[in-house]
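Recap quiz, item 2
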Amino acid sequence: MGITKTQIFTDKQNDLAQVFKVLGHPARVSILQYISNQNACICNDLVAEIGLAQATISQHLKELKSIGLLNGEVEGKSMCYCINVKRWTEIQSQLNSFFNTTKSNCC
Amino acid sequence: MGITKTQIFTDKQNDLAQVFKVLGHPARVSILQYISNQNACICNDLVAEIGLAQATISQHLKELKSIGLLNGEVEGKSMCYCINVKRWTEIQSQLNSFFNTTKSNCC
DNA sequence: TTTTATTATCGTAATATTGCAATATTAAAA
DNA sequence: TTTTAATATTGCAATATTACGATAATAAAA
């Protein structure tokens, strides 16, 4: 079928998986790292920096925004994206909580 | 085109994204949580527990194995899966390192 | 040895994702 | 106002993922 059966999982499981999923693409990892390495906001140096078309970068930015990881601010005719620190920390906690709670047993 | 351009990213970025990607499905999150909640190894109670077909569960287990997160042991006619604690901790560190390194600037 | 139970693999259908060219949209600059 | 630059959106082709039935493989039980 091809469609994920989200109904059979809890909201927490779906949310967590969604966060993992959005982070699960090298372009998006790369975008986050690049933004963080700059001292100022990044606009679309990203297109030059990462070797993907403008439309593709824009799409990846959209997905990062969808989980609240990026703030975008209009700055003249360009966009200034930066990491939403509050959300960033929140997600880090969420993942650590998952890792700490899901402990191993057996074998 | 539909194919991820892994060549333009570093190995580290690709590895990290791959880990995120494997964790980015609610069934796999759920499988990990279920295995961890049992005191003994799980075999295919998973099929009964999670509402997915046996073939589908088997496929998800395979992906979790692909990043070294699960150990499988033959136990009679069933399989006993458990979390590879060493790898688990390793991945948790890797993710935390990413989160800590990728700090915010700007805005 | 035959049956039964458990798991893995194969083939396939449905859907999602990735990537890009083309085209909007927006706002500054001329 | 027209042009220009930056970003977003649309439409599409290629590929990947999800899910499952059918079937193979394996090992215990009968």
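Residues 1-5, 43-44, 54-55, 57-59, 61-62, 76-79 of chain B lie near DNA strand C (CB under 10 Å from a C1').
Residues 11-97 of chain B form a domain with the Arc Repressor Mutant, subunit A fold (CATH 1.10.10.10).
End of item.
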